[in-house]
Design brief:
By secondary structure, the protein is mainly beta. The protein has a single domain, classed as Outer membrane protein (Lipocalin). The strands form two sheets. It has a twelve-stranded antiparallel beta barrel with strand order 1-2-3-4-5-6-7-8-11-12-13-14. Strand 12 and strand 13 form a beta hairpin.
C-alpha cells in the first residue's frame, strides 16, 4: 500500500521537477484542492482531486506563438499566458464500503493527468473582449494511479468508512485529450464596481472525454482584468481555469451556467479496449458554478461551488462539490 502511494508521490515530484526550472522566472504557482466534502457529507461520484499549476505570461517571441500561428484563423491568434498542470482525481460510487460490483452506480476510477494550457485575450468592439484556452492532457486511468491506496489512507486518517470496492475499478489505460473554450465578456461599470458578463463555448476531444457545451457567466467586483476564466472542477469543464494575468489587488464573485452534450466519457463508459464496469451515461449534463476570488499583493485565493446534474441514468441525485485554490506570484 505504502509503496503504491509512494509511486504517486514520486510521479508528482518528478513532474514538479520538470516544471521547476522554468518556474524560476516570473509566474504564478497555484495549488487547487477539489472535494465533495467541502459542501456535502457524501463521498461519491467525483469525490476529490488535487492540482498543481504553474502559469506565466508569454512574450511575442515565445515558442507557444508558433502553435497559435498554426491554428485556423480566428483561433487563439496570440498566446498571452501558458500553464503547466499536474492533477490527480478519484471517482467512486455512493456505497464505498461494499465489496461487490455495484452495477447501477459509477465505476471506481483513479485519474492522473499532466499537460499544458495556452490562454489568449483579444479586445473586440467597444467594451467586449474574447478569452480563449487551448488545453492538452496526457495521463493514465486505472490501478497505476494507486487511487485505492490513497483513498484508504485518507479515510483511515479521517476515521471515515473504509472503501472496499476498488477491485472493480477501471483498468489501466493511457489518456490523450484536448479541450478548447472561448468566452466573450462585456464589461461595464456599476459605481465603484466592475461587471463582466457574456456567453461561452467549450469542447473536448480524446479517449477520456468527447463533449461540446455552451454557457453564460457573470463576474462582479474590482480588478477583473487581472484574471481570466473561473476555477475548474474536474476534467469535464473543457479547460476552464482561473488565471492571474498580472499583479494587483482585487476581488470578484462569479456565477455561471453551462450545458454540455457528452458523446463519450471514459469514466462512465468504461475502458476503451478492454471489458470493464460501465453505466448508462446521460448525453445532456448541466453545471452551475458560484465562486469568490480575492487577490492581494502576491497572493490569490479562490473558493468555488459546483452543482452538476445527473451524469448517468441510475444516479441517485445531482452532484455538488467545491474547490479551494491558493496562488502565489513568484
Amino acid at each position: 500500500m505504502y509503496k503504491a502511494t509512494g509511486g504517486i508521490v514520486a510521479t508528482w515530484v518528478a513532474g514538479w521537477m520538470l516544471v521547476a526550472p522554468v518556474s524560476a522566472s516570473p509566474g504564478v504557482v497555484t495549488l487547487q484542492v477539489d472535494n465533495d466534502g467541502m459542501v456535502s457529507s457524501d463521498d461519491d461520484n467525483y469525490t476529490s482531486g488535487v492540482e498543481l499549476l504553474w502559469t506565466q505570461s508569454t512574450p511575442p517571441q515565445h515558442w507557444t506563438q508558433r502553435i497559435a500561428g498554426g491554428l485556423p484563423s480566428g483561433w487563439l491568434d496570440q498566446v498571452d499566458a501558458l500553464s503547466y498542470h499536474l492533477s490527480y482525481r478519484m471517482y467512486t460510487p455512493v456505497e464505498v464500503e461494499r465489496r461487490d460490483l455495484i452495477e447501477d452506480d459509477r465505476p471506481y476510477a483513479g485519474l492522473l493527468l499532466g499537460g499544458l494550457t495556452l490562454y489568449g485575450r483579444q479586445p473586440l468592439h467597444g467594451t467586449w473582449q474574447r478569452e480563449e484556452a487551448l488545453q492538452f492532457d496526457i495521463g493514465v486511468v486505472g490501478p497505476l494511479t494507486s487511487a485505492d491506496s490513497v483513498q484508504r489512507e485518507v479515510h483511515r486518517f479521517t476515521n471515515s468508512q473504509r472503501p472496499r470496492g476498488w477491485s472493480h475499478q477501471l483498468g489501466n489505460e493511457a489518456i490523450l485529450n484536448a479541450a478548447y473554450r472561448r468566452h466573450w465578456w462585456h464589461g461595464q461599470s456599476l459605481g465603484s464596481l466592475e461587471m463582466q458578463h457574456g456567453p461561452g463555448l467549450s469542447a473536448s476531444l480524446g479517449n477520456l472525454l468527447v463533449q461540446a457545451g455552451a454557457g453564460y457567466g457573470l463576474r462582479l467586483g474590482q480588478g477583473l482584468d487581472n484574471s481570466m476564466g473561473w476555477p475548474s472542477l474536474g476534467v469535464e469543464q473543457g479547460g476552464y481555469r482561473q488565471v492571474s494575468m498580472s499583479p494587483g489587488s482585487g476581488w470578484h464573485v462569479l456565477a455561471a451556467l453551462q450545458g454540455r452534450y457528452v458523446a463519450h466519457n471514459l469514466l462512465l463508459d468504461g475502458n476503451t479496449v478492454r471489458n470493464s464496469h460501465s453505466v448508462d451515461r446521460r448525453e445532456w449534463v448541466g453545471d452551475a458554478v458560484l465562486g469568490l476570488s480575492l487577490t492581494w499583493e502576491q497572493w490569490e485565493v479562490s473558493l468555488a461551488h459546483v452543482w452538476r446534474s445527473k451524469e448517468f441514468e441510475e444516479q441517485e441525485g445531482s452532484t455538488v462539490h467545491g474547490a479551494l485554490s491558493l496562488s502565489y506570484r513568484l
